[in-house]
Amino acid sequence: MNILITGGAGYIGTHTCVELLEAGHEIIVVDNFSNSLPVALERVEKITAKSVLVYEADISDSQKMSAIFSAHVIDAVIHFAGFKAVGESVKEPLKYYANNVNGTLVLLAEMQRAGVKTLVFSSSATVYGLPETLPIKESFPTSATNPYGRTKLMIEEILSDFYLADDSWRIGILRYFNPVGAHKSGQIGESPNDIPNNLMPFISQIAVGKRDKLRVFGGDYPTPDGTGIRDYIHVIDLAKGHLSALNHLAETQQKGMGELLTVNLGTGQGYSVLEMIKAFEKASGKTIPFEIVARRSGDIAACYSDSSYAKQMMGWKPLYGLEDMCKDAWHWQKNNPNGYEK
Ligand code: NAD
Ligand code: WQD
């Protein structure tokens, strides 16, 4: 297939590019490099020994997007492009609504104009808000606790309206849990611009000597060790989930049908912050100093998926466990202490 990937230079995008190229697909990346660097895609080319066609463009730029859709025959779009920092979204909501929601509207309009009707969208477990029970199923009620989460919910609703208006579209909404880890080559991985907001990159930076100590947000949650529990998923498994979604939607197309499919991509297994620290120490041989501080506003005690629907619908299941997640994150961090920056 010929697949257009928005945000393909980012963390999840680069890993998905590798999986797609290795599966024999042709890819076209559109990225404005607002949160990534071109070198990440050069690394993708190095890993796969294949070339990647890259357009430096903002997905909100309808002229450029229209020209890209006119210049290529595109079978499907995987849409990663967007901003993702929860805290920043609270301070600068307009920036998030403009980029994430408006960007998606422009993309959809251009897809519609070009007659490209297959889309895989990056949603997030954040759309479950504060779940009443665990594990989380796709049928659970959705809500948002911050502007970033609201952009994901809004886009899901837009896609649902879009499908209602024309049910010949094939749309896969993938709700990611907590992506971590890196490619086995140690060539691509997560490269935060600033102080990492997320747990795993913060721990990796301590292990490599860039930060002193982890602040564990809350030791008094109603969990076995009092720290927050999350469903960490290896980024390679997540990337493979996009292939499974595309294959599934292609089968739907072959049947002459349309579909709107919403699935969780998680492992179904939750780990606490203290368990993550211990696992990373084991994988890296480094000590991770930490102190338990107050809870972070907006955090929930525990969040993990029921991942059986993704298996049932798309035949996808995660292959990697916590040991690989930590080992691969460490391999990447050790090889690239400053991420992609020279
Ligand atoms: P990332 O920031 O590494 O990648 C996003 C890419 O999109 C970057 O390369 C950025 O330059 C590009 N981009 C942003 N706005 C753009 C625009 N208007 N036009 C063109 N390119 C643009 O993020 P990621 O971790 O790879 O996440 C990818 C997607 O998955 C995002 O939509 C994110 O919200 C979603 N998601 C991420 C996580 C996570 O924890 N990483 C969890 C759930 C969902
Ligand atoms: C994990 C656990 C923290 C940092 C976020 C977004 C979510 C999704 C994934 C995009 C929690 C604890 C963290 C630290 C800590 N992104 N922690 N000290 O909050 O589950 O999810 O990323 O869609 O929308 O909210 O991930 O990695 O920030 O936190 O103790 O310095 O680690 O409290 O229990 P989170 P995280």
Question: Your description of this structure?
Answer:
- By secondary structure, the protein is α/β, with parallel strands linked by helices.
- The chain has a domain at 2-180 and 232-267 and 305-319: Rossmann fold.
- It has eleven helices and 14 strands.
- The strands form four sheets. It has a seven-stranded parallel beta sheet with strand order 3-2-1-4-5-6-11, with helices on both faces.
- The mean pLDDT is 98.
- Bound molecules: nicotinamide-adenine-dinucleotide and UDP-4-deoxy-4-formamido-beta-L-arabinopyranose.
- Nicotinamide-adenine-dinucleotide is lined by residues 6-7, 9-13, 30-36, 58-60, 80-82, 84, 99, 103, 122, 124, 176, 179.
The portion of residues forming beta strands comes to 15-25%
- Structural class determined from secondary elements: alpha/beta
Number of helices: 11
Distance between the termini: 34 Å
Determine and state the CATH class of the domain at 2-180 and 232-267 and 305-319.
Answer: Alpha Beta
Low-confidence stretches: none
Could you state the order of secondary-structure elements as H and E? EHEHEHEHHEHEEHEEEHEEHEEHH
Give me some keywords for this one:
Rossmann fold, 42% helix, 11 helices, 7-stranded parallel beta sheet, 14 strands, binds UDP-4-deoxy-4-formamido-beta-L-arabinopyranose, 3-stranded mixed beta sheet, alpha/beta, binds nicotinamide-adenine-dinucleotide, 342 residues
What is this entry, summarized?
With 342 residues, this protein is an alpha/beta fold.
Blueprint (SSEs and pairs):
Layout: E1 2-6, H1 11-22, E2 26-31, H2 38-48, E3 53-56, H3 62-71, E4 76-79, H4 86-91, H5 93-114, E5 118-124, H6 147-165, E6 170-176, E7 178-180, H7 199-207, E8 214-217, E9 229-230, E10 232-234, H8 235-254, E11 259-265, E12 271-272, H9 273-284, E13 290-293, E14 302-303, H10 308-314, H11 322-335
Parallel strand pairs: 1-2, 1-4, 2-3, 4-5, 5-6, 6-11, 7-10, 8-13, 9-14
Antiparallel strand pairs: 9-12
Helix pairs in contact: 1-2, 1-8, 3-5, 5-6, 7-9, 7-11, 9-11
UDP-4-deoxy-4-formamido-beta-L-arabinopyranose binds at residues 84, 86, 124, 126, 178, 197-199, 202, 214-217, 228, 230, 273, 296, 299.
